[in-house]
Amino acid sequence: MPEGHTIHRLAGAFNSLFAGRAVETVSPQGRFIAGAELLSGRTIVRAQAWGKHLFVHFDDEFSHTWHVHLGLYGSWTFAGDGTIEVTEVIGAPRRRVSEGEVEIAVVDESFPPPPRGQVRLRILEKHAVADLTGPTTCAVRTVDEVQRVIARLGPDPLHPDADAECFIVALQRRRIPIAAALMDQSVIAGIGNIYRAEALFRAGVDPMKPSNAVSIEDAMAIWHDLVELMTDGVKVGRIITTKTSPHHSRFTAYLSQSLAPTGPFYVYQRTGLGCEVCATPIAMTELAGRKLYWCLTCQSSS
DNA sequence: GGAAAATGATTAT
DNA sequence: TAATCCTTTTCCG
Fold it and tell me: A134: Cβ under 7 Å from strand B?
């Protein structure tokens, strides 16, 4: 269950573990046998993230780029034989990667460990394994196809050279609620249900406000806040939005005298609980099939 | 042991 | 708006 930060973290893990190495690939589950055969024995050149899409470029990458989208519940499990040096945590038993945690576990039993669950693709290298389960997209692409996928995506706050203007313009072109616009990957890539709710709260913006009615200042504030939040998300491997203070002036009085919230979120999955800022019960509604959380007081229009 | 939910997105009606 | 795909985990009886 990933948002953009998870995928960027994943790309980093792939680059440090597999870049420049030949790998064997198999589909234990049997649903990606053709793809696994196409990739097996090839060298991984590099991995790249754009929004929630992961691209692993195999040699040769003109026709062999592996495209993965985790969807709502895709996940990765990594395991190492204990001999490799990685910057990631090396810890306890091998465990499932869900909330962006990329951990290399030292396996005391055998290496490689048997695949657990419905493993669509296993990538095997001498000292490390990566197992993929439950992806919504898992396909081998040509360069052209990769370009077509990327062309449909808006700027990604995690890219150093991302075009914030592009995001602003896209917002001004729609009148759907800003909360819906933030989930549109062609407007901004990598935002999911948590980041959108939290960013809107931190900016003090009413989620139902039409996208094109949000001020440029607020839109820019949201962009820059997302750059910060997501960069931190990549670093720590999970989303925490309560560690730093919202910049919105609405919160100033509160911030000078209060304690930091204990949970990781201000509004996400906090329906009915008191707002950390004003104690108003957090509201929840369904918007385009996803749950939307917000504070009626802190995020009221006008 | 079964239902529901989950950090998603596309396709059909 | 609804149905659909993909899978695991959590909660409830």
Answer: no
Q: Is A160 a catalytic residue?
A: no
Q: Which of A263, A277, A264 is nearest to A204 (CA)?
A: A277
Indicate left, alpha or beta for A53 from its phi (over 0: left) and psi (-120 to 50: alpha). beta
Structure tokens at A48: 């790249």
Is the overall model pTM greater than 0.90, yes or no?
yes
What is the distance in angstroms measured between the alpha-carbon CA of A143 and the sugar C1' of B10?
Answer: 22
Q: What is the pLDDT of residues A19-33, one digit of tens each?
A: 999 999 999 999 999
> Which nucleotide is nearest to A138 if distance is taken from CA to C1'?
C6
Residue tagged active-site, from A42, A52, A202, A209: A52
Residue A193 CB in 7 A reach of strand B? yes
A2 assigned to active site: yes
Nucleic acid strand C within 7 Å of A27 CB: no
Ranges A171-175, A244-248, A272-276: which has the least confidence: A244-248
CA atom of A141 to C1′ atom of C13, Å = 47
